[in-house]
Every structure is written in structure tokens, then in C-alpha cells.
């Protein structure tokens, strides 16, 4: 069978101007027709759901999104924690605290320390971790990552990675070591902004990054996470490209579970300020989440601690399936947490971005129960993932 085109080829042909036009000018009739049906059949209909006409029906959209999510995921919300291995990075990403030109203390955790942090998180109840690292081939080598995975697995049954993109062959030993998921953010799908924001380092290569989830799938990862960092370019553009990317992966990586994440810009070292016109306001954030759910009923949706407690509490029941809780974004920080209160005992000068929701994992679990949702700490066993299995929860992402 001929190999299907990778997303980078599809991406260059996307009728993005036409889709943007639809997202701005969809009619009341068009929107009502989708809402009556209860789901979006394609990217054009998703574009209609981003429109001002659809915004006027936010309550109906939210009800539909909630219903679809409960139908496919029940009341379960999966909790995970990010574990930062290293904040060394050779890239300049103008919005990131780890960017190589930021004067922050740099550290790469020794494998023993990674294991110690994993034990601490296991003690808090977590059974699912996302190992995160900046991009530095010398400090965060493939061997190092493999050793970290092997050290974590006895304490943590479900592991995913958010690290520098690699070639398919380089991913193979990581899958063999027992890693289930790979997360990679495109950050922005707008090429001129991407170039402007990533002036130095291997991350400059937009299309190579774009095809990372497909290389990961080929290597055997069965949970794939993608996302855009909202605030870097116009939100409608990012939403349409992210949805198109997810739509493509759903068809071409059909044995993998897909997770989407839609973090919004937070303050970080380097003092990057998003342009006003690129910000995704709260109301449109909810609209985006619900529209995505009407297009992608089986995809996991991930919400990190970048968002405030009030927003998280409001939005989780509407369509979120995976959340991080009690997160630190500095390598080694969990060792300094008080195990009872789950508060850091010192300032965290080397973090990637500021956390907005500082509630502990136990507090988050209580809040979920109060909302009649069921906090779950562990994903299903990877052995359940087969072409014949029902959809499983996917890789979470942080950022
Ligand atoms: S976003 Fe990732 S690649 Fe860019 S500076 Fe931060 S850690 Fe490095």
C-alpha cells in the first residue's frame, strides 16, 4: 500500500484563508444546523463553530460537548504530573523560560534524582508521568532518557515524553524501554511567526517538527499528544491548524490515542508579552474546547496548571479528560515540596513558566469528586491497546 502523505505535505495545501473566512462569517443557519445534528462532520463545520454566530450559542455548544465527553469517557478525569528532567536548551524560543539566552540556573537531574522525584510523585498517588526536558543533545541524550525511563518504570506504570523531536530509529529504544506516549507541540502553526519566535537552534525546522508525531507512531508510541501555544498568533488560525493536524493523525495513526492541549501564554523568564490581538479570551477558549469536542469525540483533551483554579474548575466538566495537578516546572523541585501541604519550600528560579493553579493533587481529586467526576491516577495498561480495542486515554501534555 502506498504510504499516505505526512501532515507537512497536507499542511502546505490547507485552504487556511478560506477556513478563516468561514470562521469569521458563518451564518446563524449554518451554525444551527450543526448544533441540531450534535457534531461537526469536517474542518469546514469546525470553522463554523468558531464563528461569532456560534459564540452566541455557547451554552448549547457546552451542553453538547459535555454530553459527548461523558458518552465516550464516562466521568473519569485522569491526573498526571510533569517531571522536568532538565532545563538545558540549545534553542531560542522567545516565549520560554528555558530559552538558551535566559540567565537562569541550569540543571539536568542525575538518573538517581529522577527516580527519587518519581517516588515522591508516586507517594502523592500519581501513576502517570510526563517526563519533560529542554532540547540539549549533550545533556538530554537518547541514552540518558532511556536510563530515566528504566529508573521510573518500577514506580510509575504510565510514562510519556515531552522532549526534543527525534528520528524514528532514535525513538525505538525508548518505546522498547516501556514508554507509551510522545508529546510534541507545534507551538504556532503560522510559519512567519514560527520563524520569528524560533531564531536559533534545531527547532527552527518547522516541517520536521510537524511530522514528529508520525515518526513517533512509526516507532511504536501508542499515545500521541499535540498542541498549540495560544497567544503566539491569531487564535482562529491556530485552532484551525491544530484541528486539521488532529484530523489527519486520527486517520493516519489509527492505533494511537490522540491528546490535544491548548495552553495559553503565561508569564515566564525573558518577559515575552503576547500581542493583544493574539490573546485567546476566556469565552472563546471555552468555545474552542467545545467546538473541538464536536469534531473529535474520542480525543483526550488536556488541561495544565497554567490556567487559574476558577477557570479550571469551570472548564473541566465541559470536555477535559486529563489534567495535571500540583505541578512544578523546575527540574528537581518536587524534592523541596512539603509532602503534607504540597507547597514548595523555596522560590523556583529556573522554572519554565509560572503555575496559576497551585492546589495539591489531593485537593484537585477532592474538587473533581465534588463535581461528580471520578479522579483516576492510572491509565489503562498499554497491553490493552490494539487495533481492536476501544479508544483509550491518550498522552497528556504539559507546557
Ligand atoms: S520551548 Fe522547549 S525548545 Fe524552546 S526554549 Fe523552551 S525548552 Fe527549549
Verbal overview:
With 399 residues, the protein is α/β, with parallel strands linked by helices. The protein is built from 16 helices and 9 strands. It has an 8-stranded parallel β-barrel with strand order 1-2-3-4-5-6-7-8, surrounded by 5 helices. Helix 7 links the parallel strand 1 and strand 2 (128-133). The chain is globular and about 60 Å long. The two termini are 37 Å apart. It binds iron/sulfur cluster. Residues 89, 91, 93, 96, 98-99, 134-135, 203 line the site of iron/sulfur cluster.
Summarize the biggest pleated sheet.
8 strands, parallel, barrel
Record field, number of beta strands:
9
Bound molecules: iron/sulfur cluster
Biggest sheet strand line-up? 1-2-3-4-5-6-7-8
Strand content: 5-15%
Q: Termini separation (Å)?
A: 37 Å
Contiguous runs where pLDDT drops below 50 for at least 5 residues: 381-393
Which structural class is indicated by helix and strand composition? Answer: alpha/beta
Structure annotation, total helices: 16
Overall 3D form: globular
Q: On the 0-100 scale, what is the average pLDDT?
A: 91
Q: Residue share in helices?
A: 40-55%
**Computed CA radius of gyration, to the nearest angstrom:** 20 Å
Amino acid at each position: 500500500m502506498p504510504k499516505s502523505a505526512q501532515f507537512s505535505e497536507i499542511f502546505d495545501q490547507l485552504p487556511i484563508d478560506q477556513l478563516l473566512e468561514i470562521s469569521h462569517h458563518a451564518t446563524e443557519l449554518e451554525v444551527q444546523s450543526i448544533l441540531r445534528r450534535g457534531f461537526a462532520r469536517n474542518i469546514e463545520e469546525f470553522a463554523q463553530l468558531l464563528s461569532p454566530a456560534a459564540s452566541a450559542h455557547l451554552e448549547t455548544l457546552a451542553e453538547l460537548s459535555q454530553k459527548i465527553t461523558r458518552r465516550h469517557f464516562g466521568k473519569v478525569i485522569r491526573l498526571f504530573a510533569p517531571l522536568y528532567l532538565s532545563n538545558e536548551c540549545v534553542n531560542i524560543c522567545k516565549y520560554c523560560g528555558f530559552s538558551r539566552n535566559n540567565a537562569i540556573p541550569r540543571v539536568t537531574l542525575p538518573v538517581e534524582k529522577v527516580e527519587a522525584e518519581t517516588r515522591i510523585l508516586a507517594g502523592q498517588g500519581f501513576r502517570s508521568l510526563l517526563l519533560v526536558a529542554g532540547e540539549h543533545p549533550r545533556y538530554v541524550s537518547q541514552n540518558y532518557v532511556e536510563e530515566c525511563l528504566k529508573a521510573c518504570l518500577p514506580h510509575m506504570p504510565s510514562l510519556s515524553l515531552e522532549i526534543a523531536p527525534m528520528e524514528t530509529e532514535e525513538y525505538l529504544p525508548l518505546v522498547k524501554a516501556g514508554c507509551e506516549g510522545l508529546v510534541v507541540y507545534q507551538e504556532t502553526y503560522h510559519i512567519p511567526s514560527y520563524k520569528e519566535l524560533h531564531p536559533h537552534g534545531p527547532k527552527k525546522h518547522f516541517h520536521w517538527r510537524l511530522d514528529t508525531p508520525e515518526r513517533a507512531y512509526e516507532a511504536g508510541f501508542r499515545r500521541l499528544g499535540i498542541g498549540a501555544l495560544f497567544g503566539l498568533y491569531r487564535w482562529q488560525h491556530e485552532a484551525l491548524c491544530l484541528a486539521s493536524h488532529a484530523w489527519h493523525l486520527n486517520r493516519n495513526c489509527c492505533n494511537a490515542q490522540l491528546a490535544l492541549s491548548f495552553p495559553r501564554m503565561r508569564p515566564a523568564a525573558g518577559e515575552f508579552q503576547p500581542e493583544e490581538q493574539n490573546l485567546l479570551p476566556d469565552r472563546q477558549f471555552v468555545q474552542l474546547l467545545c467546538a473541538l469536542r464536536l469534531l473529535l469525540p474520542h480525543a483526550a483533551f488536556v488541561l495544565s496548571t497554567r490556567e487559574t483554579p476558577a477557570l479550571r474548575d469551570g472548564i473541566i466538566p465541559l470536555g477535559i479528560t486529563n489534567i495535571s495537578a500540583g505541578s512544578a516546572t523546575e527540574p528537581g523541585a518536587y524534592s523541596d515540596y512539603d509532602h503534607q501541604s504540597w507547597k514548595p519550600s523555596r522560590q523556583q528560579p529556573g522554572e519554565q513558566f509560572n503555575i496559576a493553579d497551585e492546589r495539591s493533587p489531593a485537593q484537585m481529586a477532592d474538587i473533581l469528586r465534588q463535581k461528580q467526576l471520578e479522579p483516576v491516577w492510572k491509565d489503562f495498561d498499554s497491553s490493552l491497546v490494539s487495533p481492536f480495542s476501544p479508544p483509550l486515554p491518550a498522552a497528556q501534555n504539559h507546557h
